[in-house]
Amino acid sequence: MARPNILVTRSIPDEAKRLLAKHCDIEQYDKHAAIPRPLFLKMLKDKDGLLCILTEKVNQETLDAAPRLKAVATYSVGYDHIDVKACGARKIAVMNTPGVLTETTADFAWSLLMAAARRVVEGDRFMRAGKYKAWDPMMLLGCDVFGKTIGIVGFGRIGQAVARRAAGFGMKIIYFDAQRIFPEVEREFGVHFRELKDLLREADFITLHCVLDAATHHLIDEDALSLMKPSAVLVNTARGPIVDERALVKALKSKRIAAAGLDVYELEPKMASGLSKLSNVVLAPHLASASLETRTKMGVMAAQGLIDVLANKKMPAHPVNPEVCQVLLAEA
Ligand code: GLV
């Protein structure tokens, strides 16, 4: 049986590449930059599988350029960059990397929350600029985290991992999700459901963990920001377009809200005009899952999914479209 031909669009950890290479022939764009779109489409022409990241749009145009494509594994839990329906229509299996990045992402949401609340980055800049001359009771005052109210928007795996950490800070935990969890589970987590508007009014810290789709695009817009407390801190480690970034810049500039911690951007990697000039925002380049351990696990998981579908002809562990995988495998 011929070995499957795979396109890998970025440098990935050695362990994942070694695993993939045991079963597949690999062509790789291994630069630390996004693959140019025309090259991406050209390289896909003769590929059976694709291991991509979230900067590669897998849409109708992509599929038209890849007549042999049977499986797509994204090196991410989010798959809003993939047209899953269009893949299904062509019997292409889609896989993602859930679970392995949950705790790492929750840790990072907390890093941003703490850094924004306690002005860690401003303090770092202050030190490096040689401005620290004497301890000052009124210098760089932030806000307490312990005992406050955290509002978690999206109560899936990552939102729940954030909630577990919040319990350790003695916080009141409120959440909003399109699907309310069972009351027994709410009790187990010690969380309380709120409608979104109520959550925005009540929370001291608002952290986003929902998927990006038509319902959540600009969920946090000017109106939503206007409901928040002036002392509120907003954290986004989910997807940039969930927040209207221009409205956020206005709210931060006018101190309508106190601070924000952002890992994702509406037009990533670009930032809205004025954002980087503000001192009350902590900015990170989409690092939430970026620990060596987790990025290795994600790479191995994505590689294994492709191997399962294309070489082992078996159901992958993390299909986004299991019904399509079933049909594809039945025909293999
Ligand atoms: C990263 O943003 C992911 O979806 O894994």
How would you describe what is shown here?
The protein has 332 residues and is of the alpha/beta class. It folds into two domains: 5-100 and 292-330, Rossmann fold (3-Layer(aba) Sandwich), CATH 3.40.50.720; 102-283, NAD(P)-binding Rossmann-like Domain (Rossmann fold), CATH 3.40.50.720. Helix content is 38%, strand content 14%. The chain has 13 helices and twelve strands. It has helices at 14-23, 37-43, 60-64, 84-89, 102-118, 120-128, 157-168, 183-189, 196-202, 222-227, 245-253, 292-312, 322-331, and strands spanning 5-8, 25-28, 49-52, 71-74, 93-95, 149-153, 172-176, 191-193, 205-208, 233-236, 259-262, 281-283. It has a seven-stranded parallel beta sheet with strand order 8-7-6-9-10-11-12, with helices on both faces. Strands 2-1-3-4-5 form a five-stranded parallel beta sheet. Helix 1 links the parallel strand 1 (5-8) and strand 2. The longest helix has 21 residues, at 292-312. It starts with a strand and ends with a helix. The model has no long low-confidence stretch (mean pLDDT 97).
